[in-house]
Structure formats: structure tokens, C-alpha cells
Design brief:
With about 110 residues, the protein is an all-alpha fold. The protein is about 45% helix and about 0% strand. The protein has helices spanning about 1-10, 25-40, 55-65, 70-75, 90-100. This is Cytochrome c domain-containing protein. It comes from Chryseosolibacter histidini.
């Protein structure tokens, strides 16, 4: 039990990624990644519950603003190895992580 409490208080370091000089845009940079790698059948398209439908911007934004999307993407937890969409590229990971670092704006 103590290990669980201690683990939850540890600051997790993310693998390195580099953000571009210009702000990352959801519309121009992130949306296409989400649509082709995340919001697909059997994953985050609503098949597993409406609260997991990342094709709805507000739902995805909420998850991104908590840092959960960044954590899972940067640590290569998502998409899972079994995903038909394949893994995210380093560039795709950086775009999602940097957009999340910007506060996940609707831009």
C-alpha cells in the first residue's frame, strides 16, 4: 500500500521531444493524427463509450489538458502495438505533446 502512495507522488519524466518554434495547431497539426491514429474503430471513436470519443474535440481536449494524452503518447502506451493504425512517428508524438504543453488550445 505504501508503495502505491509513494508511486503516485513521484514526478514522471517524459522521454525527450522537441517543440517547433511556432505554436502547434490542433486544426493544422493534431487533428489529422487523432483522426487516423486514435479516433478509429475500436479505439477512441466512441465504440468504447461516448466519453472516449476523441473525434469530439471537447472530449479530446479535456483528456489532453489533464496531461493524460501526453503521458500515454510520449511513453508510447498509445496507440497500442495491436492497433491497425500503427505507431506514432516521433514527429506526431512531438506535435501532440507540444500542443498539450501549450494548454491544448482550440486553434
Amino acid at each position: 500500500m505504501i508503495m502505491l502512495i509513494q508511486e503516485s507522488c513521484v514526478k514522471h519524466e517524459f522521454p525527450a521531444y522537441t517543440c517547433p518554434d511556432e505554436p502547434v495547431s490542433y486544426a493544422a497539426d493534431v487533428h489529422a493524427i487523432v483522426a487516423t491514429k486514435c479516433a478509429i474503430s475500436g479505439c477512441h471513436n466512441g465504440d468504447n463509450g461516448a466519453d472516449k470519443n476523441w473525434s469530439v474535440f471537447a472530449i479530446f481536449q479535456d483528456e489532453a489538458q489533464t496531461g493524460e494524452v501526453k503521458r500515454r503518447v510520449v511513453n508510447r502506451i498509445m496507440p497500442p502495438a495491436s492497433s491497425d493504425a500503427g505507431p506514432l512517428t516521433a514527429d506526431e508524438i512531438a506535435k501532440i505533446a507540444c500542443w498539450s504543453d501549450q494548454g491544448a488550445p482550440n486553434n
